[in-house]
């Protein structure tokens, strides 16, 4: 009798395994299609924003030649871009505002519907218009949102309607979007499992892995296989230097929590009456124009600015602190006027500046350590990201893939997990969770 029951259990287990394998096999084709489409959209988005950045820089150069009218021309164009980008979102797809990651999380939790095609189009255009004006927004969050929208579209239109859990391709699309944005397939996979879909079921893992790999291959085929940032280190950081990354983690947590709280407060500006919103938009446009007139390299998402830091561009400690304050305030402002735009890359810029500043201080106080401030800048990106998003594994994997440098692993672990511990101790919610709850409460 016991043998018969054991055989029945074994047979049931084998049947279940066979069913799971069959469903995974059915996911291969839609996951590859998802990765291909997300990769193509991401490449087009990337190239469009690069062209917009180049066009903006040429316009700033031309404006400097017309000292009487140049600033006012820039002001008019910036104001027009702000009104257009925010108006598109408000009129056609309010859920496309900001990075879109909180909305994607709400969809995965079953708390929001997904008008995928509308979000995809509005997200692309609104972010492009805002980025062309120099607002301090990133393309990575919108790419994650658009990847999720593509996943929803394939789910609605394709044979995946047969699956009971329709969120699989939405989560996979979000991960593929991050993978395509940074040429970082592992970071895309970890982000989908750590931040987007905490269930971490085998279907999400499988579909996300296939989609991330496919999207990354598309981007590498078009944009090249080089890492996002080129960091040259003589060797692994010495073990006696690891303790210096603890203050970086602690400071990242403190300032990251301040960033989250300030951003949440500033979101109220989106709901101002129209007349008050125009006044707010005017001040935001004026701030962008003033910064762009003096230091145009500070505008935009900031990837080129980070590259300059890592490649050895020298700033005084006072300049680093000033740039951090400017980017902190204008990143909050650029994320709080109602248009589409991410905070992913802007947060990395703040982390790079924070790390660079701390590295300069350590270099001044302990010259015998031969500290390279660029090392602190790179680790600072991951630790400040952890302080804001509270996803340490994503931060660690992302920076390793973006730099192609595994020797950073120990400093990254020290800084990121100390930042995560302190941020958790402060009980300040991760930024995307906090924005999600705020949106749910308002609606």
The beta-strand count equals: 0
Shape: globular
Please state the CA-atom Rg, rounded to the nearest Å: 23 Å
Strand content: under 5%
Main sheet overview: none
The secondary structure category is mainly alpha
Question: Any overview of this molecule?
Answer:
The protein is mostly helical and 443 residues long. The protein has 2 domains: 208 residues, Clc chloride channel (Orthogonal Bundle); 204 residues, Clc chloride channel (Orthogonal Bundle), CATH 1.10.3080.10. It is built from 17 helices and no strands. The longest helix has 63 residues. The mean pLDDT is 86.
Give the helix/strand layout.
Blueprint: H1 2-64, H2 70-92, H3 101-108, H4 116-132, H5 140-157, H6 168-182, H7 185-196, H8 202-223, H9 245-266, H10 274-294, H11 303-310, H12 317-334, H13 344-365, H14 373-389, H15 392-403, H16 409-426, H17 431-442
Helix pairs in contact: 1-2, 1-4, 1-5, 1-6, 1-8, 2-4, 2-10, 3-17, 4-5, 5-6, 6-7, 6-8, 7-8, 7-15, 9-14, 9-16, 10-12, 11-13, 12-13, 13-14, 14-15, 14-16, 15-16
In a few lines, what is going on in this structure?
By secondary structure, the protein is mainly α. It has helices spanning 2-64, 70-92, 101-108, 116-132, 140-157, 168-182, 185-196, 202-223, 245-266, 274-294, 303-310, 317-334, 344-365, 373-389, 392-403, 409-426, 431-442.
